[in-house]
Design a protein that fits this description.
InterPro entries: Homeodomain-like_sf, HTH-type_TetR-like_transc_reg, HTH_TetR. This is TetR/AcrR family transcriptional regulator. Keywords: DNA-binding, Transcription, Transcription regulation. There is one protein chain. This protein has nine helices and no strands. The protein is mostly helical. The protein has two domains: 65 residues, Arc Repressor Mutant, subunit A (Orthogonal Bundle), CATH 1.10.10; 118 residues, Tetracycline Repressor, domain 2 (Orthogonal Bundle), CATH 1.10.357.
């Protein structure tokens, strides 16, 4: 005889674990992760507090899974990135940079709410990193280099660090109330990466 489904899932195909992750993800997306408690997640999910520990080793595991789900949800709503060997190189790099900026704007607030919880961030980093924008940009640039559309000596890692740094600078500065927002036109960043600075 199959075990009875939880009352909150009677009309839902998800498992209780998936329901808990989705609930925590919704809460992170709506209000961030600062002060998010097991009790608040359980109440929002419609279950008793202790139920979470039947499906997760601890709160950190649940929050890391919810954070991964949040990133995946944001990524799924974004346009696909250009493939190597297609289109104009500068336009493609601009698309990657615009994608990175949009992604960082959408997900960094959730991460900043977890800065005081390094165990959650460590669990997130240890998990499946599929859909990592930095890795995708690095793979794209390496493929363009292999195709001969970038110089054979092109330093892909430094180009990725520059693009990522721009995303962090632009987005993080908006989180400080009196900080001046840097104005870094995407076109200028693309030119600096493609042509280097002498």
């Amino acid at each position: 005889m199959a075990p009875r489904r939880a009352a909150v899932l009677r009309d839902d195909d998800r498992s209780l674990r998936e329901h808990l992750i989705a609930t925590a993800e919704r809460m992170i997306a709506a209000t961030g992760a600062t002060g998010l408690t097991v009790r608040a997640i359980a109440r929002a999910a419609g279950v008793a507090d202790g139920v979470l520990y039947n499906h997760f080793a601890d709160k950190e595991e649940l929050l890391a899974a919810a954070l991964r789900a949040h990133v995946d949800t944001v990524r799924s709503g974004m346009d696909p990135l250009p493939a190597a060997g297609t289109g104009d190189l500068a336009a493609n790099l601009r698309a990657y940079l615009d994608h990175g900026l949009a992604l960082h704007r959408a997900i960094l607030p959730a991460f900043t709410g977890l800065l005081g919880q390094p165990a959650v961030l460590a669990r997130f980093a240890d998990g499946d990193q599929g859909g990592d924008w930095r890795a995708e940009l690095a793979a794209y640039l390496a493929a363009e280099r292999d195709l001969g559309r970038l110089a054979p000596t092109a330093d892909v890692d430094t180009a990725v660090a520059l693009a990522s740094g721009v995303c962090h600078e632009v987005v993080l500065s908006t989180m400080f109330p009196h900080a001046a927002s840097p104005r870094v036109p995407t076109e200028a960043v693309v030119t600096a990466i493609l042509h280097g600075i002498a």
